[in-house]
Amino acid sequence: MKVCIDPGHGMSNRQMGIFDPGATHVENGFLFREADIALRYGLALKDALRASGVEVFMTRDDATDHAPVGRRATMARNAGCTVLVSLHLNDFDDDSANGLEVLFRDADDRSLAQRLQSELLEVTGLRDRKIKQRNDLAVLKFDGTAVLIELGFIANDGDRAKLLDAQIRDAAVHRIAAVVMAHAAAPA
Ligand SMILES: [Zn+2]
């Protein structure tokens, strides 16, 4: 098994040479960017998987790697991945919106999405927004197992505090790694 980790947004995501920060939020003069938080989760997940002997491919390792959103599924396939995990944060006009959700496209991936949803709710304490089937997301157009985790809402103070907490991040990525490995060993 080789897992593609896709930290959402970043350089050339929507337009070549332009950095796409994803959702942003300013609090006390500090700018929080979805692209940065997703990358931090991605790199931590890479370490967790590699520590368990799982091969990993990253669609981007930093803020300068070019990763057009329409090419990410192809990049994962070309790298020989059979599983793709995309990491994002949610955003909404109303800062009270909160919670975690896992998105998937193929019916085959529903059980993995549900398992990730349940386990991540347990370690983060975030609100359950339920799993959702989505056919319109470019990154999920991957001919293998693919899920997109919306970790929480960047503009919600409670969600953001949790997502920036290193202990929660560590627990979350280890749980993602364990669920992905268990699914690969025995697909439900
Ligand atoms: Zn996003």
From TrEMBL:
Enzyme class: hydrolase
Keywords: Hydrolase
Reaction equations catalysed: Hydrolyzes the link between N-acetylmuramoyl residues and L-amino acid residues in certain cell-wall glycopeptides
Signal sequence segment: none
Transmembrane domains' residue ranges: none
Span of domain MurNAc-LAA: 73-181
Alphabetized InterPro entries for the sequence: MurNAc-LAA_cat, N-acetylmuramoyl_amidase_3
GO MF: N-acetylmuramoyl-L-alanine amidase activity
Record EC number: 3.5.1.28
UniProt superkingdom: Bacteria
Pfam families on file: Amidase_3
Keyword set includes Hydrolase: yes
This protein's name: N-acetylmuramoyl-L-alanine amidase
